[in-house]
Amino acid sequence: MLDFGTLRSQDRPKLLNLHLLNSGTKDVPITSVRTTPSNEAVAVDFKAVTLKAGESRYTRVASISFDASKARRPFQFSGKITVKAKEKSYSKLEIPYQAEVLDGYLGFDHTATLFHIRDSPVDPVERPIFLTNAFSFAVRIHNVSLPEEARTMFKVQNLSAPILIPPHESRYIFSLLFRPVRPSIHIDSNILLITNASKFHLPVRAYTGFLEPLVLPPSLKENILDFGVCSATDTSSVTFVVVNSNPIELEIKAWLLTGDSLSMELLRTERGNSSAALGRLRELQNSSASQQKTVILASGYYAAFRVTLVAAALEGAYDGAVHITTDYEILTIPVRALIAVGTLNSSPKHIVLPPSFPGKVVHQSFSIQSSFTQKVRLQQIRSLTEDVRFYYKRLRSNRDELEPRRRSKTTSRPELHPSPSLSFTPDFTSSRVIRELKLVTCGGSEFVFVLNASLPYHMLASCAETLPRPAWELELYVIVSLIMSSMFLLVIATAYLEAQSIWEPFKRRVALEASSSMETGRPFNLREIVQIHSESK
């Protein structure tokens, strides 16, 4: 028996799993699971499965859900689940199900259990909770309780259980005391009501109305828009999101900037939290700007923004800020950067890899020269075209930071920093490959270099010798040799038979003429031979 218990017409669908055990000696394939008779209130989630013989554990065969909102007539409250199998001895199994459906609900004012946590300390707030009985019978409230996480700010008062609520009437049940504590946190919980019509849950929520900011990589800090070290010729961008984890929607009325050379644009709004935004990092960074001037951010959604810094005509430490205005706060996110005059250069300028062929790995070392006055951390080296044949390895005793240039009395000599060694593994897809290499600093600066690798045509033979021979090559050689030999013998046999068909008629004709009146000394005439052959056909 699948018993769904007591359900109210406003309840969410209840799910039960159907487990079966095969105690026989043969495997039993289950072909279908369905309701008998058909019932729109019951949904069956089933995929074909085979019950192994002699199993000691039950196997989940299907998931059965009962939606009380679709059960409008009494005959829908019960029925049978029919399981069919490919087995003659027990091809069909019927399992009864039932549910008790109560038509109605307990109504209440949802705003009565929704509380705003303010910045400044406030006096405790007490609100009366009334319930309306929309059932056709009296509902008796036996008990009211709060979960542990809600008791830090909430308390149930003035409860005189049991309380009887006549059908289609309202009654005062208890008072809910709210006392905010610091530090402020969101509370999203439920008050549990024990009644004669099963259990009810009343949502109780406390919120700050604040947005949760998250600055995405390459910024090193999640709460600061950190551009790191930027060249005076750079234009860098950093993406960040603000998440609404409040149980209400928030309107972002404006976003402003403090600081020169900064610009800010809205990218998009999406459902998700901070983890979801991090998982869509590349997609968000490549998003185009939206033209919206205000944003209505629903609960459980985030808005993504991009801040761009144009470092031209700036030098030294840079400080700015982003300001986002809602009805509950002005969220301020600091902007920081260290703008230096200098560049990164590679030696050599052009990376040309030696000739190679499939199976041979070639590499080329190169160095990075920093003319900045500050340390620059090397974060990443990658090919712009994401070509897996190019990769890099750091040299031993190699450092992550490029030291600032050294100074002397007469000249300044930038320090050469040995960078990773590039390797290239060629294949037969092309004889010449040109790719770009991008260096990204911790401040988001990008430096692009060209990689050039070639495979000379005269090296193809050497490539073939180097590559291991396939296991089927010898078999293919023997098969082809046999086929060619057979064809050669067939040609010889065909030629022999054709010659015989020409020679035999000629031989008979000559013998006939010799026995009659053959002239001696007559020249040998090939045309007569051909004529004889034609007549014989």
Automatic annotation (TrEMBL):
Residues 109-208 form the TMEM131L third Ig-like domain. GO terms for cellular component: membrane. Pfam families: Ig_TMEM131L_3 (PF24498). The keyword RNA-binding does not apply. The chain crosses the membrane at residues 476-499. It comes from the Eukaryota. The keyword RNA-binding does not apply. InterPro entries: Ig-like_fold (IPR013783), Ig_TMEM131L_3 (IPR055435), TMEM131-like (IPR039877). Keywords: Membrane, Transmembrane, Transmembrane helix. Signal peptide: none annotated. Residues 401-423 are annotated as: Disordered. This is Transmembrane protein 131. It comes from Liparis tanakae. The lineage of its organism: Eukaryota, Metazoa, Chordata, Craniata, Vertebrata. The gene is TMEM131.
